[in-house]
Amino acid sequence: MAVSGFEGFEKRLELRFFHDENSIARDPMGLRLIDFESLDQVLNEVQCTVVSAVANRSFDAYVLSESSLFVYPTKIIIKTCGTTQLLKSIRPLIHLARNLGLTLRACRYSRGSFIFPKAQPFPYTSFKDEVVVVEESLPKSLCYRKASVMTPSNNPSRAWHVFTASADVESDETVVVVEVCMTELDRVNARSFFKRKGDEKSNSDSAGKEMTRLSGIDNINANAFICDFAFDPCGYSMNGVDGDRYSTIHVTPEDGFSYASFECGLSLYDDGHEDISEVLSRAVDVFRPSDVSIATTYGGEDYNNEVTKRVERVLAKKLGLKCRSRIMDEFPGSGTVVYQSFTPRRK
Amino acid sequence: HKQISITYHFFIHTRSEDNMGSNVSSVHDVHSSMETKSALVLEIESRRQWRSLFDSMKGSDKLLVIDFTAAWCGPCKTMAPRVKEIASKYSNVVFARVDVDRLMDVAGTYKAMTLPAFVLVKRGEEIDRVVGAKPVELVKKIEKYNV
């Protein structure tokens, strides 16, 4: 384990809004009307910038210098890594939404455990401090709140931290969010994410495309349009766009602190879409990591134990990954979170 | 370790680029620059206009760049000033902006669903495309095919 290096583990913020009863014109575009300059200013506060962007009828997807931003009409998801100040975005985003007649309805802040916790700035040095900062930024109307640290008994250093706040006691969010965090990536697989010698000056977009192809990331979801980006001298980010579904992958390939994340939003009752366990298995297979954790957030759905078990079966069968722990927790107004951790069978 | 070079800050519009050259215009220059300005990016309003442009270009070796946009596309709006700059720099390339909701069949023909999408066409055939707000890649491809 390196003494210090780039922190791959992301901080994730999700804000959900609803249209004011008083607002005269309810533009279906909602948050997508926020102009780019304003978004850029918010991201400046967080210490990251936009490197690439695409949109379709359902949402806007931005690849950032430190991860990703997704803007739906009533939902924003920001995921940033390194030593970014993600929580600084809460107040300005609430303000920008207010100007469009949108009121905050729910907030979720989550992250894994940092590889280099001491390198983080305040308040990210302790989850307790992060929770204080989030709470201070939220209106009192979000009265159903809970903070939880889900710690696997077999690996206490890889906990999952969640804070949720909601104006409603029940969530009607139909999207299920799956977040996969992988460390100790296979060294050969990780090599795909280094820019080749002589490529340093080349266009990052074409280098990104090469990485997407070489690594097999383009096979995870053949339907998705992939907006990719290769960093200097190494590192990779992509946003996948498939109808109203987003997906995102971020890779820190350096040995000693290698990390990759895969996240997607989907619906459990996915007619016409592929089984999530197959998609997850392909995503994990790209990296062949020695350590995998999966956090699944079931919005308003009743926790679906079948999906959890199926994911465990598929990962065991196809990748020889054994589930070492499974923790479940319920969050009022936000749903259920299931946190699983896996390591290869031999270990 | 993740170094972001200055070229990636393309979204930040620099005032100085706007004002370049404006001090040296004469009466003639104003006239021609007005002409160039109005023709920088052709806004395609109708199918007929599209057909006429497309057919007129089929016979020439001129590069056509179709800029697919939509009202719901935030990234397209941020890309627009960059497209204008690129269009003014490559004056022998024809830029045509097509709103995918207004000209649905053209959008359908080129499968433009994720935007912005820049489709490069020569002699009536698509030769390449850039999807996403990527001015650097767009310029690279224009230079490649603008011969």
Automatic annotation (TrEMBL), chain A:
Binds 1 pyruvoyl group covalently per subunit. The modification Pyruvic acid (Ser) is found at S67. It comes from Capsella rubella. This is S-adenosylmethionine decarboxylase proenzyme. GO terms for molecular function: adenosylmethionine decarboxylase activity. Keywords: Autocatalytic cleavage, Decarboxylase, Lyase, Polyamine biosynthesis, Pyruvate, S-adenosyl-L-methionine, Schiff base, Spermidine biosynthesis, Zymogen. GO terms for cellular component: cytosol. It is an enzyme of class 4 (lyase). GO terms for biological process: plant organ development; spermidine biosynthetic process; spermine biosynthetic process. It catalyses: S-adenosyl-L-methionine + H(+) = S-adenosyl 3-(methylsulfanyl)propylamine + CO2. The record marks E66, S67 as: Cleavage (non-hydrolytic). Transmembrane segments: none annotated. Its EC number is 4.1.1.50. Belongs to the eukaryotic AdoMetDC family. PROSITE patterns: ADOMETDC. It comes from the Eukaryota. Pfam families: SAM_decarbox.
TrEMBL record, chain B:
Residues 28-147 form the Thioredoxin domain. Pfam families: Thioredoxin (PF00085). Transmembrane segments: none annotated. InterPro entries: Thioredoxin-like_sf, Thioredoxin_CS, Thioredoxin_domain, Thioredoxin_H-type-like. It comes from the Eukaryota. Signal peptide: none annotated. This is Thioredoxin domain-containing protein. It comes from Capsella rubella. The lineage of its organism: Eukaryota, Viridiplantae, Streptophyta, Embryophyta, Tracheophyta.
